[in-house]
Amino acid sequence: MQFTAEEVSRLQSYLCHKLGNPDLTVRIRKNAPDSVEVLLKGEFLATIYKDTDEGETSYDLNMAILDIDLARAS
């Protein structure tokens, strides 16, 4: 299920507003047009997948956090 440019723009606006960070960017993945990447200042942060069921669309944000990243944040 491909993302439209309007969806990408709306997702980016939503995330920037909800998370209070204007440095978030959402872009379509080149080799996987069924999902988009979320980046923070150019660094990969998460993936968003789209699901449409019975005429309703939802977006699933998937963010993996490594234990070594937690150690760096302390």
How would you describe this protein?
By secondary structure, the chain is α+β, with helices and mostly antiparallel strands. The protein has one domain. 30% of the residues lie in helices and 39% in strands. It has two helices and four strands; from the N terminus they run H-E-E-E-E-H. The protein has helices at 5-19, 67-73, and strands spanning 24-28, 35-40, 43-53, 56-62. It has a four-stranded antiparallel β-sheet with strand order 1-2-3-4, covered by helices on one side. Strand 2 (35-40) and strand 3 form a beta hairpin. The longest helix is centred in the N-terminal third of the chain and has 15 residues, at 5-19. It is globular. The termini are far apart. 9% of the residues are buried.
Q: Helical residue percent?
A: 25-40%
Low-confidence stretches: none
N- to C-terminal distance: 39 Å
SSE topology string: HEEEEH
Helical stretch tally:
2
Tell me the structural class. Answer: alpha+beta
Key structural traits:
globular, alpha+beta, single chain, 74 residues
Ordered list of secondary-structure elements with their pairings:
Blueprint: H1 5-19, E1 24-28, E2 35-40, E3 43-53, E4 56-62, H2 67-73
Antiparallel strand pairs: 1-2, 2-3, 3-4
Summarize the structure.
By secondary structure, this protein is α+β, with helices and mostly antiparallel strands.
